[in-house]
């Protein structure tokens, strides 16, 4: 294992040790960036690519998975501020072609209280699974470069029973954010990529952040992510660095860097992107797992932290901040050929995030959020 911290101030041996532990738990590589009262610190550990010794670049691009949802929600709320969208208006007003339940509001999409079936599959409390699009195994790999149209993802979800009546419960559904993308494009007449550039990326100078659409490419420099799975009685390891992630759409398709995620989340939390009233709405959490509008709000022994992690096979991302944006932690984890199944990967991710949060925010975390399992999807 190799370590290559890039320091702007004192060395942080506790952070280097945390990265070592993450790699030792089975991850191929990790890059970490912390901004706090001691300044900025960035480092990496592990390997950039299997079979090579070079560590991940500390300025590397990576797939951020469901951290994308915070960007998507911010674009929607900026359009609310511009008077183009009503937060509590029926989503059906903007997207009548789907025949959505009129009780489903824009707010419910952003907070996962719509009850809509998750197009990537549903896991029920009794242990049963209702499949959606292929998201694991050989079928997932076979669709590595397949382009999914967002409208078809929504129609797949709408062909399945809703989980609950709109607004009566909470359940994480990627379909909500596919609808948010279509809503943005309907009211603006521009693509989500264009609106994200206009409202977030260009004003903040986020040159390392990409809305890839159906492109499988990822800008250099970057580490590699791998997917290990069993097929026909044999274990296989596939490089999933180049991947068409249109299957997740605006619920998790973006690419970024630890520096860009820091700049974005710090600006968002400190009020530079949204009016105070809408930022307060964003941080008003549903009592079930503490989800606001596109982010989690978590109480720890060290105080309140806001975050949205994400990932799927090969990749995981961490994005944390204090409510004022003054202290942030952003990171990327890549999986390799370690013998970890889905549950083991989720457990390793949960331990990694707990270790880092304890070191940076000095607080014991509350109950695990949905993100621990979701990062392994």
UniProtKB/TrEMBL annotation:
A Pfam family it matches: Beta-lactamase
Gene3D superfamilies associated with the record: DD-peptidase/beta-lactamase superfamily
GO MF annotations in UniProt: hydrolase activity
The entry's keywords: Hydrolase
SUPFAM superfamilies: beta-lactamase/transpeptidase-like
UniProt cross-references to InterPro entries, sorted A to Z: AmpC-like (IPR050491), Beta-lactam-related (IPR001466), Beta-lactam/transpept-like (IPR012338)
Ranges of residues in domain Beta-lactamase-related: 16-338
Keyword flag Hydrolase: yes
The UniProt record lists the keyword Hydrolase: yes
The protein's name in its UniProt record: Serine hydrolase domain-containing protein
Organism: Streptomyces hebeiensis
